[in-house]
Amino acid sequence: QVQLVESGGGLVQPGGSLRLSCSASGTIFSINAMGWYRQAPGNQRELVAGITSAGDTNYADSVKGRFTISRDNAKNTVYLQMNSLKPEDTAVYYCKAGISSRRFRPERDYWGQGTQVTVSS
Predict the structure, then answer these.
(1) Would the N or C end of the chain have less CB density within 10 A of its end CB?
(2) Which residue, among 26, 49, 48, 41, has the nearest Cα to 108 in the 3D structure?
(3) Which residues contact 34 (CB under 8 A, 6 or more apart)?
(4) Rounded mean pLDDT of the chain?
(5) Using CA atoms, how far apart are residues 121 and 110, in angstroms rounded to an integer?
(6) Are 69 and 59 in contact (CB under 8 A)?
(7) Is the dihedral of CA 104, 114, 79, 87 positive or negative?
(8) Which residues on adjacent β-strands are paired with residue 104?
(9) pLDDT tens profile 88-120
């Protein structure tokens, strides 16, 4: 059984910062790519940022230069540092991780429960 638990969401004023965390727990052999997605009301879920097990990163154009994704492999945790937040960043943020629970077992994607980020004055 694998669980992803997110934290760090909340209400922030435009221009402010938040740091999201997502920790994986349970029976874990290896974690490959990890990422953050978001979904605003009426919109499809979209990729915000991703990071491979080697540390290579990619970002949506809308967040480049403002958001930074990082991971701590020893803690099975991925972070999203969000700076210069805008009202259009308001959404539920979800983390995703490709996890293999045992050696030689194919990895599968796991999702967190989501954390609300609201940017408003």
Answers:
(1) N
(2) 26
(3) 22, 50, 51, 69, 71, 78, 95, 96, 97, 98
(4) 97
(5) 34
(6) yes
(7) positive
(8) none
(9) 999 999 999 999 999 988 999 999 999 999 999
Q: Over the Cα atoms of the chain, what is R_g?
A: 14
**Would you give per-residue pLDDT tens digits along the chain (121 residues)?**
899 999 999 999 999 999 999 999 999 999 999 999 999 999 999 999 999 999 999 999 999 999 999 999 999 999 999 999 999 999 999 999 999 999 988 999 999 999 999 999 9
Under 8 Å between Cβ of 114 and 47 = no
DSSP letter at 27 equals S
Q: How many residues make up the chain in this entry?
A: 121
**Cβ proximity of 93 and 36 under 8 Å:** yes
